[in-house]
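# nightly structure sweep
# worker-07 picked up a monomer target from the shared queue
# config: single-sequence mode, recycle default, output format = structure tokens
# input follows
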Amino acid sequence: MNRLEQLSNEFRENKRMMEELKDLNDKLKLEIIDLMNGQEKIIQGSLKITYITVNSNSFDSTKFKKEHEHLYNQYLKQKQYKRFEIK
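# output follows
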């Protein structure tokens, strides 16, 4: 196995482990939220846990494009980036 294959395999394995850890943390989060019994904030010693509703506004670009296509096209910006993948 050459160096490129070795590094690629290591990269894929690390990515798999990160996804597994994310799944574990998601389960822990759900259990913590359940233990909070609907409370928005819990403080125990140096531990502070909050689970609050956050309101935010977003721009509906799909609707804007449908209703004002000419204006939408005037403000489009093309972006270029590089994507890294290993399959």
